[in-house]
Amino acid sequence: MFNGFKFLAAAALTLLPLPVLAQSCGTLPVRPAIAAPSVIKGQKSEAEAADARHQAFVQVKTWQDAVKPYRDCLNGIIAGDKKKMAQADAKKDADAIKQWKAEAAAADKAFNSSVDTEELIVNDFHAVQAAYCMRKDADASSCPD
After folding, report:
1. Which residues form the domain of 64?
2. Structural domains in the chain (count)
């Protein structure tokens, strides 16, 4: 009976559409709402502007920490599929190989999308940092050269 269960589970996995398998990693964490540079420029005091910049930094780091397990999972799918393909018989396992290739491609696409999102988030933070550093009252020692 137990072996029958394994067979049914394996059969069910082959029937699942690829997006469902890719979703086993969950979803990309929601992009943080970082303060706009105009908010930093409009703060009344340097301390408020510095705090807003710091909060933006914290949001970026929190997002980066949250995306790591997601990316690790995607990399695991890609590595696992590559390993399966390397061990498969091209003639006997042609359908499975096709599915593994598509699944690995979907995971790779999701990974690349997470990198694109991270780039946007970091660019948002750099705009906030630049806005802070352009203030006449900014602590220049905390600004990049």
Report:
1. 18-138
2. 1
